[in-house]
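quick one
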Amino acid sequence: MKYVLSWILIASISILFLSNCLQPNVYKEISQDQSFIDKIRALYSSGDTSRWPEPQLHKMALANFSEIGHLPKVKYPQDNPYSAEKAALGKTLFYDPRLSVSNQIACASCHDPELGWTDNKTFSFGHDRQLGSRNAMTIMNIAFTQSLFWDGRAESIEQQSQMPIQDHKEMNEHIDLATDKIAKLKGYEILFEKAFGDKTVTKDKIAKAIATFERTLISPQSKFDKFIDGQANLFTDDEVMGMHLFRTKAQCMNCHNSGYFSNNQFENDGTALLGTKQQDLGRYIVTKNPGDVGKFRVPTLREITRTGPWMHNGAFTPLKDVLTFYNGGNPEPPKKRSTVHEGITLVSKKSEMLKPLNLTPKELQQLEAFLGTLSTRTQRFSPPVLPQ
Ligand code: HEC
Ligand code: HEC
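structure w/ heme C:
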């Protein structure tokens, strides 16, 4: 009996030891020596990602992981290929407030090119200045999402484009009435003819044109893209260290990965605030799967410094506060972890990948400096002339 107990003890200690070795150690300290910074600067800007230092990833992240890097080429769907004429029509519709019942609100009201294609508000206001309950996301680079909205409730950009028109708090117009209004404007005939080969206006064509326009909104080369292509001196030491922390100790790359800086998965970031007035069930609203409570789509970090306030509820500003939240392991107060919804008790379970990070104030500042390299300058964007 004594032996059995000792064997059990030895076995459990070994398992504990092994699992600790296999788990990437989030507390692994990173050197701040100049020689180390110079070394990783050379590797990261070598133009060859196979020479980059090994990332530190959580085992749960592996299935959906691909290395950060350039944005890929946009793929247009077979049933809605690109044409310049269709994108031009889409741009016009995107700016046309006559798609709304009040003739006052266009898509561009909440997705403004000068504000990183968002509205820089915590919550957008729409029809009759009603407040929505989620933060407007940027539509830059949405060509690379696999589902749309914070909860992924739209499966394609075409499908998504009709939803704000009909949303009571946004544009509040019936899609058929909106289509009729556009059809009555003589000036649109030529645009539809050029884009689709005939001038009849349908809601399907409106959706396809807007989606084609949106797929053209791709970030130009950022400082990050140029640095990894070989412009070694473009990054400051802090930005180099920030990139390294992002891939290692800070654990960001578990979810924000690929050229799009999102793995396109739904994760619980500890932001559901269940049982409070701000409660948001997130992905659960779409799937009704209790495991999806409080999960949101991992957003892109491209253009991130331009698209605040941050998170689905715009709860964080400045950006530094988001980093402080992650550094604390995304604390979710016990009182805000459960709620009864439609008679069912729902519990929010933050991702196991999120743990306190022990980043020093200097490291937090370096991480923030790196995030800045993912933004590009606001480009001049001339609004279209609206057809009469
Ligand atoms: C009243 C403000 C408002 C208007 C008007 C508006 N949007 Fe949005 N948009 C939002 C908000 C808020 C969200 C996030 C909503 C959510 O996730 O529930 C969003 C999300 C989106 C997304 C999803 C982005 C992503 O990464 O998933 C796209 C695409 C989009 N809007 C396009 C449009 C188009 C096209 C129009 C015009 C037909 C439009 N929006 C009109 C506020 C607005
Ligand atoms: C477990 C997956 C996961 C990890 C790890 C993770 N994030 Fe996130 N991130 C998310 C999700 C999900 C959201 C959206 C949460 C919400 O809206 O409530 C988000 C949102 C953000 C936002 C706000 C984006 C916006 O458009 O509002 C920033 C900035 C951000 N993360 C940065 C980071 C940084 C920096 C790290 C590393 C310290 C990190 N994230 C680690 C999943 C993750």
